[in-house]
Amino acid sequence: MQTAEHLMQADTVPVSPMLPLPYRVSDISEEIPGCQTLRLIPEFEKHYQKWTPGQFFMLYVFGHGEVPISVSGNPEKPGELTFSIMSLGSVTQAICRLKPGDAIGLRGPFGSAWPLDKLKGQNIILMAGGLGLAPLRPALYHLMSNSQAYGNIQLLYGTRQPDSIIFADELASWSANRAIEVRTTVDNAGRDWSGNVGVITDLLKDISLNDTNTSALICGPEVMMRFSAYALLDRGLAMENIFISMERNMKCAVRMCGRCQYGRYFICHDGPVFSFDRVRELFRIREL
Amino acid sequence: MMVNIKSIHNLLAENDFFKGMSSEYLKTLAGCGKLAHFKGGDFLIREGDCANAFYLIRSGKVAIECHTPASGEVSIARIGAGDITGYSWLFPPYRNNFDSLALSDVSAVVLNGKCLRSKAEQDHELGYQLMKRFAQVMHDRLEATRHQMLDVYANGRTSNAG
Description:
- The structure holds two protein chains of two kinds.
- Helices cover 21% and strands 30% of the residues of chain A.
- By secondary structure, chain A is an alpha/beta fold.
- Chain A folds into two domains: 4-110, Elongation Factor Tu (Ef-tu), domain 3; 123-283, 3-Layer(aba) Sandwich (Rossmann fold), CATH 3.40.50.
- By secondary structure, chain B is an alpha+beta fold.
- Chain B is built from four helices and eight strands.
- Chain B has one domain (35-150): Jelly Rolls, CATH 2.60.120.10.
- Chain B has a four-stranded antiparallel sheet with strand order 1-8-3-6.
- The longest helix of chain B has 27 residues, at 124-150.
- Chains A and B meet through strand 4, strand 5, strand 10 and helix 5 of A and strand 5 and helix 4 of B.
């Protein structure tokens, strides 16, 4: 029987989805207090796993446990994996205590991706709430790198307060470069904030929508996604053109344990990205 | 004076808020209106003052604020061109409950609440047309406020991000 050490030393690696591969933290940056972005590089180059925007990995902190985290980095930069993590529970707290050079285990990538190829030629609205901007960031990088293949790209971002805006420098530079249209709103602010105050759906009032050729990608707290999707439906978007990234407690990530079961779906396998027509009815079942 | 009323009539007619209202009623409303300009830092509405007007913003940005001892002035919403601020003039005791502060130079149409109340009392159809439109604004603001109260972004709650 092969041990993990043998697998790691082999030239070709038959990667088991249950076997964490060793990575090291190469760089850490603090986005906002309590939220860090970690860049990870594989201990062995051959362990780098290709992924697509919207997918997630299981991050394993030795001695603490695993958590599912969506990739927040640039898909055009292979060889490294970037994750943005809020220090909340025991595992994410342990991740946020890691230092450059520390080891971490990774399994994945898992789950469905934003259907970016299918959306070519369309206008794209991305609606991000709070840390939900992180799983959408790879899609944004892809859309900006391939902007000639898409129509108008607009990012609507809602968060709690001005000091809870993540990737603030990037948002400002994307907006300044006119790479995409960025509109930000916060739930409350003092007078030193010159931007919008109000809920994210208010931002839709200011944009014109070509309902027949527009798709939306939404990621954020479930309540925010629900009301954003309803607001887009009110503006004439078809349910199958609205995509959301769902979250449930994931454990195995390979549709075996059932922890992330959501009606007839397993979020880890059938999701996390769903078109709204597949889950709309499930949104109405409160026990789920 | 006629020029002023006519231009206000046109401004009202162009605004979505008054969409569907008859030209006759718009003329009546225009008779209660005047143009106003505010510099950044001026208050359109002050909390605690008598509520005798509402404002149709033509240009500029306005913050709807509340002063809190712990955090100072807190913006609850920001509105701009085409939006309405002020509906306390509709309900006793006709007192403003929030500030509306011009964040930039603001042009607005001010509609006198006392004048409108009296005309609405005389013509209930006008009153209904006004009430229907303000009910929609209040509904939208209440819904938005309820969503803000849910504080959905607290503790970094989001999909797959922690």
